[in-house]
Design brief:
Helices cover about 10% and strands about 35% of the residues. The termini are far apart. It is built from three helices and twelve strands. The strands form three sheets. Strands 5-6-9-10-12 form a five-stranded antiparallel β-sheet, with no helix packed on it. A four-stranded antiparallel β-sheet has the order 1-2-3-4, with no helix packed on it. The relative contact order is 0.19. It is mainly beta.
Length: about 250
């Protein structure tokens, strides 16, 4: 309806998935850093750059929540291959997801609190955040590493915790062996096979900090239509199994 410009159906009203006419379903809205805009000079090179406050932190835009990500990937690819030789069979499935955004509270908090090797640098050296001041001049305010990462990572603005969820994954692999009929000729079994399998064995998310080791398939919304939102969710698991199949 025209009187409902947007509908929040997952997450929070200040950070969640929304349905908006003309936008991809589930677009993520949240708080952003204020951008510089010179109404008198549309060609000003500072236009669109993040504004830094007088304290050296990003200036929080408190006007209204805005679009900070699209959880829908550009495309997905799946490749399944099975190789067989005599009684041995090897099967594997690879998945590739291109694009799609995810808000990750786990990743941003690990960075903000300095508990990942991604922040292994000289923390006594001053930090200057990229951006401009309210007048459009390049920021030159020096702040500490603690201030730079913690003040601009924990809590708002939410856009600082949005990452590209591109992922390549070894979804599943299995190795099977069918026992030869000669071996089973004197047994009560018609066929026998044993299979060793594993799922979610390996993944690589190139656009996340290296040592955070975050799995973009993790979700903080449970079973729902929501996607692209993670709120300190437990890590994904790697699973192994073995099965013995006998027929009479």
């Amino acid at each position: 309806p025209k009187d409902i410009p947007r509908l929040n159906f997952a997450g929070y009203t200040s950070l969640g998935n929304f349905a908006i006419n003309g936008k991809p379903l589930g677009i993520i809205l949240g708080n952003k850093v204020q951008r510089f805009n010179d109404p008198n000079n549309p060609n000003n090179p500072s236009n669109g750059k993040r504004i830094i406050s007088t304290t050296g932190d990003f200036l929080f835009d408190q006007s209204d929540i805005q679009e900070i990500g699209d959880p829908n990937p550009l495309y997905r690819l799946t490749g399944i291959s099975t190789l067989s030789w005599k009684g041995i069979s090897f099967r594997m499935q690879w998945d590739y997801v291109q694009g799609g955004d995810i808000y990750s509270a786990t990743s941003i908090n690990l960075l903000a609190r300095g508990v990942t090797a991604d922040t292994r640098f000289d923390r006594f050296a001053p930090v200057i955040l990229p951006g401009v001041n309210v007048n459009g001049n390049v920021n030159n305010i020096q702040i500490s590493a603690t201030q730079a990462y913690f003040n601009n990572g924990v809590g708002d603005p939410g856009e600082n915790a949005v990452f590209d969820a591109t992922t390549i994954r070894l979804r599943e692999a299995s190795l099977s062996y069918n026992f030869p009929s000669k071996l089973l000729s004197k047994s009560p079994f018609g066929n026998a096979s044993i299979t060793f399998s594993g799922s979610n064995l390996w993944y690589f998310a190139p656009n996340f900090p290296k040592y955070v080791n975050f799995d973009p398939e993790t979700s903080g919304l449970g079973v729902s239509n929501g996607r692209g939102l993670e709120f300190f969710t437990g890590p994904s698991s790697r699973r192994y199994g073995v099965s013995l199949r006998l027929t009479f």
